[in-house]
Amino acid sequence: MSVPEDEERLLPLAQRWPRASKFLLSGCAATVAELATFPLDLTKTRLQMQGEAALARLGDSARESAPYRGMVRTALGIVQEEGFLKLWQGVTPAIYRHVVYSGGRMVTYEHLREVVFGKSEDKHYPLWKSVIGGMMAGVVGQFLANPTDLVKVQMQMEGKRKLEGKPLRYRGVHHAFAKILAEGGIRGLWAGWVPNIQRAALVNMGDLTTYDTVKHYLVLNTPLEDNIMTHSLSSLCSGLVASILGTPADVIKSRIMNQPRDKQGRGLLYKSSTDCLIQAVQGEGFMSLYKGFLPSWLRMEDTLFYRDCDL
Asked: For this UniProt entry, which residues form the secretion signal (predicted)?
């Protein structure tokens, strides 16, 4: 064995396998952030489903059984009606989803930035490259994670189904995966993937590009250095932009994933994401597309915990 190979074996794992290390570290940090912020995600999903006008076509009176409530009242209602631990209902598939999505997104974005596009001579990453890279990274990560996202959304609504006197659909995470696979096949696991990747593209376009742009501006034009304060301000701005862009697609995605289906696995409420969009706006108004906006924005800030400081 040559000397360079001997020296390489002595290097830390992060230097020997940078991409794999990046994926694992991002996934682990995302798991911690997921556990800490999951009640916000559950509250967001419940808010997105409240007042769903399309249920009227099925003669479902449940849409009137739970009056619309804000973020705090919804969260307190879950605790009072279902129990404190139900704030984490669906957290297991959410962790699966976050590991796959966050790891895949960050690794893909870094690869596109460093290898495919490359930085300019002054080490700045041009905005147009950041936009394309962020959207492509989000699409790839979200497409891979769609089955876990589907199970997460459906399990988050199980508590509400129980309160409405409806039978529970799943006994647990693995039963959910098995049942969806048995009823809809492989395609069933990717139900709602179109609005899901649309949301991911919009969120990443706003998140990653705004973060890069704001941080670069602050470092060059203010006394702030590349430190935790700069990262915090950049994350706050990027989370706001990402939520504004991505919340409508997130509402549509959640409703399509949670809608009842026939024996062939076809949705009973919506034919497509466009149909869901039209029904929501016509039946509930344009602002229905922003149900769950506040918890969505607050949850975006968890990116601060696992974002690479050299984005």
From this structure: none
